[in-house]
């Protein structure tokens, strides 16, 4: 569990400049809508969590709040900023890029930034040339999905990347990426420290699966499950129109079933939700096959929603030879499709199975307004943190408070659906599927 | 400020029955995704809030958590439930109705509920007959905006309504409505208590303006500001195409400017946001008219977003004779339209003003998936609270925790945009409008 | 009725250059998907229309087909082209601009065009400077509503405009605008002819009301009625939730009720549709007020859709003094609202009237895919016509064939809903409103 | 080519009853919006088509117009009607069902119809029981995708089905289905005739691929290509963000490439469109692989849209052994994916290929407003035809006229994209792909 020491944010040094926003924040006090820069946001939020702790709240685990500071480490108007987007697409990447550039220009007098293209590749000599990002260039990019900077997967050598930052005189690097990219950012931070440079690295965590811990919800997630819910509707409509109709929807979620859970709740129509965090069996009285068969008999059709990381234990048992001779390629969607088909045939029951896999349609769209607001505010927070000389951290919003979280912490574990939490309970209440499908 | 005593929830009596969900929740402990029914959710969340308090967290202000209980006050399968929707439309009303009925049926074995029609009117002899709500009846209603029960404004005599509840044998009444309706619910509670009846009254707070305190965000709000953001886009497109184009968008928000703020942030294109919480002047160097005129000169066009409750002081000065001779009917949208038109004419500047007022288009739609999930979970929470014998309370989700809040508290004040909070700061950062427009 | 002579298209002169598309169209013959440039499209399409005509089809009224020609009047790569958008916004303006620029560049080797800003104003010295339109500039504009060139209403002096065209060396001017703009284009053509210049003027007819004759459906119309249908849904949802609910929707359509008719058919939920082409009474047994009152009594609520130009005779009778003392400002929507309110009060019936007027929300959006395709193909057609040296004409698609129509013809009359046509019949079938509401 | 005799519609007998709509249509004459029931709609529409024909237009190929008749064969109020939906889903099925039921009830006094479930299966003893269709039952079904009657593929024995019709006393059977279903309908007609029964069979042609001839555009097609265009956007966004990005989109279209063409035109972003009607090579200078490789080198990314029926000749060469050992299962999408991957590897070029296959997402949605109107009017037309005693025909709208077409004709051939027509030309103009990709 995180303790106070784990939640400390690294600072490049003492602040050196007055912020153009100083007058703006002067005299503000913590209230329901604001946390003073001198205050901290508690990690815990229940009586039982705090019961028995030492009496001084300052000793309790707590986060540094986000937001503008009265004093800055980097000079307004003169600071050089780089931005890079890494990993898979996620709704909101362009919104974050745009908002960083706009915030720098409007409030810190920094009229342009350097956009590194195609992820960390753009920070190497082999990569594409960077682009100049000005308010004019980014003005409309939020109206498009994807990322105007392009992206790529994988990391690059930290020394090479720091060489490039030094060469271009970059003071602050904003990394928009997932846990892999944050590991890469962490290495850049270490190399920067090793050389004794004053370069800040601020992360904006991106994960369409919502599997990054300590930051509340990740940007783009609401948009993603909203689109995923449409796919469940597609499957339901197809299933209901068919004789013995079964809709099978495979959604993103290698390690965390958030998209599957939220999409199923939004849609109200999934009969079974299968996620990586909760094991299930195919066979047995409570196994998927028997329950699904029963549901189709009772209602004429049924919909199964499965996260791509669910039931991996089932694949280890059967995957190697059945589909492709290669366990790495085992696919729970295909495995379920084949298993259901076989079972219904064995039972002599009619089956019309429709397999829906929305994949890219979920992540390439522009964000819904809710996520658009969140991207904007995250990016504003990131700029404030960078200008104040924070580094080795990401911005997040937890329990409605914008906070700073050390990179080390967000890459230390995964956020996942708690089998005994209220989200999974809501799913069970909604689907009425067996609580334990392994029996 | 709320203290512990204010946050106590009334119980009709000791629980008398095992819950069908008992095994389900047994042994669960508080974690990031769950709060045990024996635990409480802290009201405060920063170090400064708790610094200097008595050391025992049990003495601090805290909320009862929502969720299923191991023991119930009302008998599963035999409890009679009523549902009523009151006041103006809001996205998600049908979702809440549906989820209450489904939760009762699936988990408490209560196969039907009584739907009172057209708000509290339906609880009087003069009102329309109630309808029978079963899973079949409500199955698809979430796919439509509005409320299948109809609604009406205004309260009715509490004695008459309690007579009706008694006549129909209702054990739990779910009231989905705004602060006015919650005042009505409060009177029903008092009358129930006066007669010594065992009828629970549980509120699901509804306010499209998001102006109910202590409950976090209200259902339908995300959908509402998403639609409102579309209207800002409409105004922007019109303004940009015209010579001296000004888009003026009047949005909901009598007392709280949340919709205006969030819609403006989502859209990124408002130049000025005017809300009830922050005064502004028309005249003067920082007044709207001069600033707007300048903005149009610089950029060719501009967009003004105004909440309907903004600038009421301006209307008191000028409204009475100009528009309709009646201060009650003064309309800030019309007033701004006329003032801008006059000012641009005085300055000899071209003006093409487009006035957009989306009104009903924002509130009559079905909820976006994010709100759909929230409605579902709020409704599940409400059912759990009712079955456990709670009364005189509403359900809410604050800082991501489902909680119970006394009705007295939610009608004690309004939730509004803090002029020194981070939301308004984000708006100022985004629009770059003057911090103080009264100078 | 149009005769052959009326349908002749003016040519600037004999073609002088081979088209880069020559090989492409060589050898094509008229078929279901193509009309040869040597063929013509018949105006008439029924046996009765042609019965009794002279036997030679060449003598019958017929249109010149659209499409690429083997030979051109203007030189590929060297021709200078201007584009102007005039009048109110309409979905698809940016699509047409984009497609003209792309077609010129990709197929005629003309890499840029001159964009005149803010309508005909941009063709005068007082107007804004023109912009350079290249494939890069226009690449994404179709993703936005409005027009990147801006627009304005009203015409300008033809001599001044031709001076400007000559000054800039423009060979072909594409005018995207409504009937007023086409009258302006006509004057430019006359002035060009008077001076003996070789400047082609090609119109792309724009009318959100679909009231331009001979061209089939106008671009953006499908998008417009689709949005209008949403407003009818809004009104219906509001009406159904209220006690004595009446939804009143005022839609565009000064002279033609197409938007009202199609939106009502799309929506299936209007109870009464009122259009300029079909008179109706308020009073009397078949008058709107009595019928509406009956409908609300029977069904609990009702929706009235009214085109802004409907019932003008009613306003002439009552408008002058009742609303604003000025007949020009009489507003059928407001008049109906007041009349309905008065009538229900007189009858002692409950009424909750919701007045919805979507206005700009309908016209400022980007086009639906159907209209996007149509805009693209219209623009391609316009470019082919211009390069071939046609002038004083507009492009259209009638009965699925792209055709050329003289400007004189499209401004000679309005296209409107025929009271004895099948569209109005479908509306009557759908609404079951009285066939004659004046009785 | 169709001649007059081919276009004659079968009548069950002389009309026997006055239509309730008689007064409504009396005295109407053919005009731009209406064709009199005594008139006919010409098949041909160009001068060259009619040049040299016998002078009497009555002898030319022409269609019987749709619409209400003054006299009916079947008795209003007493006629029994059946409805069945067959084959794959298509946007608008529920709209057609709803409109048939509403038209029967509102205008012919026939308050209910029999809905046969799961296609022709529902017309056999083995099938599910039929459902009663009343205005109440169908009132909201148009708000949902799919078909409330369910569907199935394949035909059933005509004798068995006619037995069932006789058993239930059905007078008119409306068949909503594709060419296979129309063949089935044809057999029912033959069996009805063999027995000398007076049962009318009216088809409403359904084909999401738009491949049914003589009927203009099929319902749901506009909605389908609109959704397909979204998938192209998805592919484009993914491709543009990647290093060596190629988006590959497989769309419906076994025999006709209409969806691929229209979606590509709507989207403006496809670089290559491959359809069944136009052969292409993978290799060679104009082959897909070289052209695609070039395009990616020039622009950084490219999008390929392929209809599922395209390039089947390529699969015959390579399919049998490569993918699954079974030529029937060869899949052009997978084949292209593999071929592109191999080619880029051979060239040593970076490639990030994203394969998008929207499948069910296109066909399970509710129709866009344009299609909703069309479904409504087609259904009204079908009811009029049935009540007038027509049989063995389908309704359609060709060149904006509602017409009757013999079933024999619509199953005689397929409608497809003409390689020398203007649609394909527009695609070539838009994509700038080689005119002949086999060179």
From TrEMBL, chains A, B, C, D:
<feature type="binding site">
    <location>
        <begin position="153"/>
        <end position="154"/>
    </location>
    <ligand>
        <name>ATP</name>
    </ligand>
</feature>
<feature type="binding site">
    <location>
        <begin position="360"/>
        <end position="363"/>
    </location>
    <ligand>
        <name>substrate</name>
    </ligand>
</feature>
<feature type="binding site">
    <location>
        <begin position="252"/>
        <end position="254"/>
    </location>
    <ligand>
        <name>substrate</name>
    </ligand>
</feature>
<comment type="subunit">
    <text>Homodimer.</text>
</comment>
<dbReference type="InterPro" id="IPR022953">
    <property type="entry name" value="ATP_PFK"/>
</dbReference>
<dbReference type="InterPro" id="IPR012004">
    <property type="entry name" value="PyroP-dep_PFK_TP0108"/>
</dbReference>
<keyword id="KW-0547">Nucleotide-binding</keyword>
<feature type="domain" description="Phosphofructokinase">
    <location>
        <begin position="80"/>
        <end position="385"/>
    </location>
</feature>
<dbReference type="InterPro" id="IPR050929">
    <property type="entry name" value="PFKA"/>
</dbReference>
<feature type="site" description="Important for substrate specificity; cannot use PPi as phosphoryl donor">
    <location>
        <position position="180"/>
    </location>
</feature>
<comment type="function">
    <text>Catalyzes the phosphorylation of D-fructose 6-phosphate to fructose 1,6-bisphosphate by ATP, the first committing step of glycolysis.</text>
</comment>
<keyword id="KW-0808">Transferase</keyword>
<dbReference type="Pfam" id="PF00365">
    <property type="entry name" value="PFK"/>
</dbReference>
<keyword id="KW-0418">Kinase</keyword>
<comment type="pathway">
    <text>Carbohydrate degradation; glycolysis; D-glyceraldehyde 3-phosphate and glycerone phosphate from D-glucose: step 3/4.</text>
</comment>
<keyword id="KW-0460">Magnesium</keyword>
<dbReference type="InterPro" id="IPR000023">
    <property type="entry name" value="Phosphofructokinase_dom"/>
</dbReference>
<keyword id="KW-0067">ATP-binding</keyword>
<feature type="binding site">
    <location>
        <position position="308"/>
    </location>
    <ligand>
        <name>substrate</name>
    </ligand>
</feature>
<keyword id="KW-0324">Glycolysis</keyword>
<comment type="similarity">
    <text>Belongs to the phosphofructokinase type A (PFKA) family. PPi-dependent PFK group II subfamily. Atypical ATP-dependent clade 'X' sub-subfamily.</text>
</comment>
<keyword id="KW-0479">Metal-binding</keyword>
<dbReference type="InterPro" id="IPR035966">
    <property type="entry name" value="PKF_sf"/>
</dbReference>
<feature type="binding site">
    <location>
        <begin position="207"/>
        <end position="209"/>
    </location>
    <ligand>
        <name>substrate</name>
    </ligand>
</feature>
<protein>
    <recommendedName>
        <fullName>ATP-dependent 6-phosphofructokinase</fullName>
        <ecNumber>2.7.1.11</ecNumber>
    </recommendedName>
</protein>
<feature type="binding site">
    <location>
        <position position="179"/>
    </location>
    <ligand>
        <name>Mg(2+)</name>
    </ligand>
</feature>
<feature type="active site" description="Proton acceptor">
    <location>
        <position position="209"/>
    </location>
</feature>
<feature type="binding site">
    <location>
        <begin position="178"/>
        <end position="181"/>
    </location>
    <ligand>
        <name>ATP</name>
    </ligand>
</feature>
<feature type="binding site">
    <location>
        <position position="88"/>
    </location>
    <ligand>
        <name>ATP</name>
    </ligand>
</feature>
<keyword id="KW-0963">Cytoplasm</keyword>
